[in-house]
Specification:
By secondary structure, this protein is of the alpha/beta class. Helix content is 27%, strand content 21%. Helix 8 (251-265) packs across helix 9. The longest helix is centred in the middle third of the chain and has 17 residues, at 282-298. InterPro entries: Citrate_lyase_asu (IPR006472), NagB/RpiA_transferase-like (IPR037171).
C-alpha cells in the first residue's frame, strides 16, 4: 500500500488498525464527535494519600492505557516511580500514551517492554537506548507517533482512550487544584498535561508540595482529579531548564540564523502585527535575536509568538516588540518564571495550540514558522524522527502542526559531520513537502517551486544565494560521498501519523 507521497505502508497493519493512508494536508471542515471521560463522584475529602502503590493496585489493570506528560523533560521522577511499581505488581499488556518520552525514562521503559508490562506505545518521540531498542524490534506492536496537535485530536476524538493519567505537578491542594508555575520544581505551562487531565478516566496527581486549599491559579482543577499522591520529590529542577537558554556561538548556526532572518524580513509576511513560532535549537534561538534587531530597525512589532517559549521570546515581550506569548510549554526557567509574572504570556493546552479538528487552533493563525530538520529531501519532505542510520532518535513534536504557517522555513546545515541533511529521499517523512516554503542552509537557500511569489520576493536580496533543492542535495553528496543504502527487515516497528490521523510513513525494523 502506498500513500500520496509514495511511501510504502504495511497493508496488514493498516487494515488491522483501521488506518488510512495520507492523502493531503487539506483538513477541510468536517464535523467530529468528541468523547468524554468517566467520572468518579467525590466530595474531595478523600483524595490525598502517600500510598502510590495502593492507588496503582486499585486503578491500573492488565490491558489498560496509561499516560504521562514530559514537561519535566530529563528532570522527571514520576514515570520511573510509577512504572517500577506497575512492574512489581505484575501488571501486563499496557499501552503507554505519554506526550513524549525523554531519555531519563529509557531504562525503565525498556525493562517494562521486556517484562511484557508494556506492549504498545503512542507518543510524540523517543531517543537514545529506547529508540534504538524499538528500531530493532523490541516492542510487540508498532509505535504510533503523533504530533502534539495530532495527540490532542486523538484524545479528544477517542482514538486514544486514557484509563489512568499520572501527572507530576510542582504544587497541588487536597482536592487537586494545581499549576506548573509555583514550587521548587516549577516548569511553567502545563499545556500537554491539560489534555490528559481533561479526558482520562482517572487522574492521579503526584506532588511534593501540598499547599493550602483552594490553590489558585488552577490549571488542573479539582473537578478533574481523582487522587493527589504526596511523594518525596516530583522532579529535578536543575534538569527542567537551565536559566537563559544558551545562545549559539557556532559560526555555521549563526550564519543560518542570519539568512533565516533575511528571508523573513524580505518577505511580504514581515509587517506590523505578524505572528511567528520558533524552536528551541541554537539556530532558532539566534533567529529570534536577529529578528529583534530587524523589528527595532523597521519599527515593527509582532502580535503573538507561539509554541515552546524561550528566554529570547520573553525578551521580545518585555521589550514591547511582541504583544502576547501563547505558551504550550516552557523550554527554560526564564520562560517559566515569565508565565507566572506576565499576564501577556497565556498558558494554552495542546488542543488550543494545534488540534486540526478544532473550531480554530493557534497554528492556523501563524504567519511564520522556523523549524529544524534531521533530513529534508528534494521534494521538501522533512524528517525529524529517524537518523541517517534509520534509528528512531527524535520527535514529531509540533513540526507538522507549525508547518501550516503561511511561511514555513526549514533551517539546517547542509551536512552534519559526514552526514548529509539535504538528500534525494528522506528515510522517514514526518512533514510533507507541500507544507514547506523555504530551506535555509549555511551554503544558500532553496525556495519550493510551489511558491514563485516568494522566489520573486527573495531573488534579488543581497547575500541570499538561491539554489534549487536538487543542487543543494548534489552539493551535500559531493561533500560526503555516497553511502551504502540502509538495510531493513519487512517488519514495521512504527507508524507516523499526519496530524489528521492518516499515516504519512512507516518505519521498518533495522537490520543489525
Amino acid at each position: 500500500m502506498e500513500n500520496k507521497l509514495g511511501r510504502t505502508l504495511p497493508a496488514d497493519v493498516m487494515e488491522q488498525l483501521q488506518l488510512t493512508p495520507f492523502q493531503t494536508t487539506e483538513i477541510g471542515n468536517p464535523e467530529v464527535q468528541r468523547t468524554a471521560p468517566q467520572v468518579r463522584l467525590s466530595t474531595g475529602n478523600d483524595k490525598v494519600t502517600n500510598d502510590l502503590k495502593k492507588i496503582i493496585q486499585e486503578n491500573v489493570h492488565d490491558g489498560m492505557t496509561i499516560s504521562f506528560h514530559h514537561h519535566f523533560r530529563n528532570g522527571d521522577f514520576v514515570f520511573n516511580q510509577v512504572m517500577k511499581i506497575i512492574m512489581e505488581l505484575g501488571i501486563k499488556n499496557l499501552t503507554l500514551a505519554p506526550s513524549s518520552l525523554t531519555g531519563v525514562m529509557n531504562d525503565v521503559a525498556i525493562e517494562a517492554i521486556k517484562q511484557g508490562t508494556v506492549t504498545a506505545i503512542t507518543t510524540s518521540g523517543m531517543r537514545g537506548s529506547l529508540g534504538d531498542a524499538v528500531s530493532h524490534g523490541l516492542l510487540a506492536k508498532p509505535v504510533i507517533f503523533r504530533s502534539h496537535g495530532g495527540r490532542a485530536r486523538a484524545i479528544e476524538n477517542g482514538e486514544i482512550k486514557i484509563d489512568v493519567a499520572f501527572l507530576g505537578v510542582p504544587n497541588a491542594d487536597r482536592c487537586g487544584n494545581a499549576n506548573g508555575s509555583y514550587g521548587d520544581e516549577a516548569f511553567g505551562s502545563l499545556g500537554y498535561a491539560l489534555m490528559d487531565a481533561n479526558y482520562a478516566n482517572k487522574v492521579v496527581l503526584l506532588t511534593d508540595n501540598l499547599v493550602d486549599y483552594p490553590n489558585t491559579p488552577a490549571s488542573i482543577k479539582q473537578t478533574q482529579v481523582d487522587y493527589v499522591v504526596e511523594v518525596d520529590q516530583v522532579g529535578d529542577p536543575d534538569k527542567i531548564g537551565s536559566g537563559a537558554t544558551r545562545f549559539t556561538k557556532d559560526p555555521k548556526n549563526l550564519k543560518i540564523a542570519n539568512l533565516v532572518s533575511d528571508v523573513i524580513t524580505n518577505s511580504s509576511y514581515f509587517k506590523d502585527g505578524f505572528s511567528f513560532q520558533t524552536g528551541s535549537g541554537g539556530a532558532a534561538l539566534a533567529v529570534t535575536r536577529y529578528l529583534r534587531a530587524a523589528m527595532e530597525a523597521s519599527n515593527i512589532h509582532a502580535s503573538f509568538g507561539l509554541g515552546g517559549i524561550t528566554n529570547p521570546m520573553v525578551e521580545l515581550l518585555e521589550a514591547g516588540l511582541i504583544d502576547k506569548l501563547m505558551d504550550v510549554q516552557d523550554f527554560d526557567k526564564v520562560a517559566a518564571q515569565s508565565m507566572k509574572n506576565n499576564l501577556n504570556q497565556q498558558e494554552i493546552d495542546a488542543s488550543w495550540y494545534a488540534d486540526p479538528d478544532n473550531k480554530a487552533a493557534m497554528v492556523d493563525q501563524l504567519d511564520v514558522s522556523i523549524l529544524s530538520a534531521l533530513e529534508i529531501d528534494t521534494d521538501f519532505n522533512v524528517n525529524v524522527l529517524t537518523g541517517a542510520d534509520g534509528i528512531i532518535r527524535g520527535a514529531v513534536g509540533g513540526h507538522q502542526d507549525a508547518a501550516t504557517a503561511k511561511l514555513t522555513i526549514i533551517c539546517t546545515p547542509l551536512v552534519r559531520g559526514r552526514i548529509p541533511s539535504v538528500v534525494k529521499s528522506a528515510n522517514t517523512v514526518v512533514t510533507p513537502g507541500s507544507s514547506v516554503d523555504v530551506l535555509v542552509t549555511e551554503r544558500g537557500i532553496a525556495v519550493n517551486p510551489q511558491r514563485p511569489d516568494l522566489l520573486a520576493q527573495l531573488q534579488n536580496v543581497p547575500g541570499l544565494q538561491i539554489y534549487s533543492i536538487d543542487e543543494l542535495a548534489e552539493l551535500a553528496q559531493q561533500i560526503v560521498g555516497t553511502e551504502a543504502p540502509l538495510e531493513f527487515t519487512d517488519r514495521t516497528v512504527a507508524l507516523v501519523e499526519y496530524r489528521d490521523g492518516s499515516i504519512i510513513d512507516a518505519i521498518k525494523q533495522r537490520k543489525d
